[in-house]
């Protein structure tokens, strides 16, 4: 062990509380040395990672990594929120007592970084100077260099963020220990992994993975779980799995901001990177603020609901990203961006990369190509249909590389929120868009978001499940308390955002094709929503919200079969009536669900019965 004090001195890390934290875990994990990281260390760390074989070059200024084959997605089952108060137990947060989990994690971490470097990564999950910055500071300790390189892309990283704290103890203590990935029994009864947020102690202890969603503690554990808990405990803010976009109308000069929650791998990043459809591009521009997390609060001066993206980069799904679906995403991972790909197909001899949906057919010349596990494609049998890239393969790139990044993405103020939308992969029932103008009905709608699980989490792809506000994997405290807090925060705003539920994924019952082309065309229903809020269109009222008439939806320059359009703009009443029974059961699981939410449920149910 090098002298920890000396390493911290040399790095100018002066915060005494951080120093004590580093010393405690350096001792516990048995790391051979400590190294403090600033964003400016990126180029050197990239070189070191290439030399060590942790990354490979994929052309000029692009990198490739492969994760352990049993470590490719977030594990929801192994993720736990622990506190000292059992009333924090919810249905989804896998609550356990802090007194049980901390010693258990410490036991697993003891000596587990032997021989390795423990990197000290001080970070800020907010634009500097933002009103929520006091809750956004943290230090991640990690024994994996690739995790450091991802953190530098996904968060603002540097010692200044902890040296400048008013209260030196007010940072999140985040510890990541990789463990011996080949002997952790992933997915078996003997699974050794634990991903624990000790929320009331602002301490995050993750053991047994180096995959982004489990190992980038600033992003998910702090940005979502810890942020949610802190936002509730302080009564000040919401931390949500939301994308956040700006829509600029060049004709009127107006700017709008929409945020919204879709479960992982259900379209947030694509929506945030959206290039307007060609026919609408002269008038509208979509700008990227965030694609996975938004923190929301009421701005003291204006009284309006504001939002900001705590992250500094994009951790995006590769599958189906191509020139048509998402040209901005491709530009953000072009050569020279220093992006990092994980678990896609790779040709080390040419530096080329490929994933399903990148082009219609995989590269014709299979020579030199390796699938995501590292196995040569050329050795495959002809009838082998296994994907070349893992379905949850990803790219990591900083916001600066995103072509449609908002000019003011880094401004401390954040942006006023005009609309909050919820959505997910739902193959039937959910129309293209239904707008909701009442706060309690909007929150009720978010709480009853039902969608298909995706490959972003281990296990259950395709299974329909409720995913409240798309936060099911990140829920930090009881769902009833969460609903009340949501009502309180948004309800305090002087101007109420409009809510909507969207669905880009409705399918034809017979051949399974998507009824809506999606991607860039998703701007069209969002423009309708803003027009509705402005009183420029009226829509058609239904029991479950206001839906656009065919005439109101701007379909200029787009081809959609009339039958498909009709389907996605109609309400399947029998299915909805059946759904109301499921919702009753779903909501009934939660303690302290506010009466306002039950009233909203009963209003929708009786409106459906009246219509039928
Ligand atoms: P996120 O994980 O919520 O950020 O979702 P992404 O934007 O990364 O998208 C996840 C997957 O859904 C990718 O494979 C996308 O290509 C696909 N996807 C995104 N938007 C649409 C859409 O509007 N229609 C269809 N059919 N697929 C989409
Ligand atoms: P996603 O982000 O929502 O873009 O998939 C990563 C995650 O939630 O694991
Ligand atoms: Mn996410
Ligand atoms: Mn995403």
UniProtKB/TrEMBL annotation:
Catalytic activity: oxaloacetate + GTP = phosphoenolpyruvate + GDP + CO2
Cofactor: Mn(2+)
UniProt keyword RNA-binding, yes or no: no
Subcellular location: Cytoplasm
Biological processes, Gene Ontology terms: cellular response to glucose stimulus; gluconeogenesis; glycerol biosynthetic process from pyruvate; oxaloacetate metabolic process; propionate catabolic process; response to lipid; response to starvation
Residue positions binding GTP: 265-270, 394, 425, 519-522
Domain Phosphoenolpyruvate carboxykinase GTP-utilising N-terminal: 21-231
First-tier enzyme category under EC: lyase
Key word Lyase present: yes
Keywords annotated in UniProt: Cytoplasm, Decarboxylase, Gluconeogenesis, GTP-binding, Kinase, Lyase, Manganese, Metal-binding, Nucleotide-binding, Pyruvate, Transferase
Subunit (UniProt): Monomer.
Protein name: Phosphoenolpyruvate carboxykinase [GTP]
């Amino acid at each position: 062990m090098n002298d920890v004090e000396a390493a911290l001195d040399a790095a100018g890390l002066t915060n005494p509380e951080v120093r004590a934290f580093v010393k405690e875990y350096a001792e516990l994990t048995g790391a051979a040395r400590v190294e403090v990281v600033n964003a400016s260390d990126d180029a050197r760390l990239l070189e070191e990672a290439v030399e060590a074989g942790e990354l490979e070059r994929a052309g000029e200024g692009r990198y490739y990594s492969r994760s352990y084959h049993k470590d490719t997605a977030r594990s929801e089952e192994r993720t736990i929120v622990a506190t000292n108060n059992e009333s924090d137990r919810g249905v989804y947060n896998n609550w356990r007592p802090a007194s049980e989990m901390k010693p258990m994690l410490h036991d697993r971490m003891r000596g587990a970084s032997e021989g390795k470097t423990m990197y000290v990564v001080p970070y800020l999950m907010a634009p500097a100077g933002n009103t929520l910055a006091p809750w956004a500071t943290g230090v991640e300790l990690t024994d994996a260099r690739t995790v450091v390189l991802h953190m530098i892309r996904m968060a603002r990283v540097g010692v200044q963020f902890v040296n400048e704290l008013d209260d030196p103890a007010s940072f999140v203590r985040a510890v990541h220990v990789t463990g011996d990935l080949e002997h952790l029994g992933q997915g078996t009864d003997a699974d050794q992994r634990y991903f624990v947020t000790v929320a009331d102690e602002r301490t995050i202890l993750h053991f047994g993975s180096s995959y982004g969603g489990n190992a980038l503690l600033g992003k998910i554990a702090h940005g979502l779980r810890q942020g949610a808990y802190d936002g509730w405990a302080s009564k000040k803010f919401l931390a949500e799995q939301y994308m956040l976009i700006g829509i600029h109308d060049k004709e009127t000069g107006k700017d709008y901001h929409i945020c919204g929650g879709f479960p992982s791998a259900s379209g947030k990043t694509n929506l945030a990177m959206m290039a307007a459809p060609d026919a609408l591009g002269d008038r509208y521009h979509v700008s990227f603020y965030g694609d996975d997390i938004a923190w929301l609060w009421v701005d003291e001066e204006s009284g309006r609901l504001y939002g900001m993206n705590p992250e500094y980069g994009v951790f995006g799904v590769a599958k189906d990203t191509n020139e048509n679906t998402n040209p901005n995403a491709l530009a953000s991972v072009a050569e020279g961006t220093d992006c990092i790909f994980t678990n896609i197909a790779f040709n080390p001899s040419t530096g080329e990369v490929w994933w399903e949906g990148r082009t219609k057919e995989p590269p014709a010349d299979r020579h030199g190509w390796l699938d995501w596990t590292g196995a040569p494609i050329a050795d495959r049998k002809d009838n082998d249909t296994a994907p070349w890239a893992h379905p949850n393969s990803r790219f990591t790139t900083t916001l600066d590389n995103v072509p449609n990044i908002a000019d003011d993405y880094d401004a401390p103020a954040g942006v006023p929120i005009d609309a909050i939308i919820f959505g997910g992969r739902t193959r039937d029932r959910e129309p293209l868009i239904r707008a909701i103008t009442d706060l309690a009905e909007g929150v009720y709608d978010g709480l009853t978001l039902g969608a298909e699980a995706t490959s972003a989490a281990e296990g259950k792809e395709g299974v329909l499940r409720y995913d409240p506000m798309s936060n099911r994997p990140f829920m930090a405290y009881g769902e009833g308390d969460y609903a009340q807090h949501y009502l309180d925060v948004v309800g305090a705003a002087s101007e109420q955002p409009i809510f909507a539920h969207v669905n880009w994924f409705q399918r034809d019952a017979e051949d399974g094709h998507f009824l809506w082309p999606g991607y860039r065309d998703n701007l069209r229903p969002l423009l309708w929503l803003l027009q509705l809020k402005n009183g420029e269109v009226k829509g058609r009222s239904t029991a479950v919200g206001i839906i656009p008439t065919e005439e109101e939806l701007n379909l200029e320059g787009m081809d959609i079969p009339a039958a498909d359009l009709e389907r996605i703009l109609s309400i399947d009443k029998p299915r909805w009536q059946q759904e109301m029974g499921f919702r009753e059961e779903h909501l009934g699981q939660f303690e302290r669900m506010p009466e306002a939410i039950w009233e909203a449920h009963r209003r929708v149910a009786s409106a459906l019965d009246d219509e039928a």
